[in-house]
Design a protein that fits this description.
The chain is mainly α and 150 residues long. 74% of the residues lie in helices and 0% in strands.
Length: 150
């Protein structure tokens, strides 16, 4: 099984299940808004992933729309994380606010990357390329700025 397929098959369902559980007990509305934004972004990545893995039919229009929505969700990240809000359910590391310039730069990079890729997906090959690029952007930021609760 190709690496993209193995990783995607694990990440999508785990991300969605984790998000649903994490949101249940969130008390801070600012943290909940951040989590909701990230969940909405993850849903779009999952749309791309299911197509890339062949679990759903390839649909260039849906893939390009998902990339456009990823760009829109990424556009909100800086504002949502600007205040160092906390909640026991939050997965945000303190490093976000200790190095907010780097964090903000990564959010902007994801926004611009997804915007550039939106409209470029024409076939499964270009979808896989776009998904890898978006996934690398997400993963890099998560490695540095997201708590691993597993």
């Amino acid at each position: 099984m190709p690496r993209l397929t193995r990783v995607g098959a694990l990440i999508g369902p785990i991300t969605m299940a984790t998000a649903a559980l994490a949101h249940q007990n969130v008390q801070n509305p600012a943290v909940l808004a951040r989590m909701d934004n990230m969940t909405a972004l993850a849903r779009q990545v999952e749309i791309l992933g299911t197509m890339a893995r062949g679990e759903t039919a390839f649909d260039a229009e849906a893939a390009n729309s998902a990339l456009d929505r990823i760009s829109g969700q990424a556009n909100q990240i800086i504002d949502l994380f600007e205040a160092p809000e906390t909640d026991p359910q939050s997965e945000a590391r303190a490093g976000i606010w200790e190095n907010f310039a780097d964090f903000s730069g990564r959010a902007q990079e994801l926004e611009l990357l997804a915007a550039r890729l939106a409209g470029s997906v024409e076939d499964r090959g270009s979808l896989v390329t776009a998904l890898r690029r978006v996934g690398a952007s997400c993963s890099g930021c998560h490695e540095d700025y997201r708590l691993n609760r597993d």
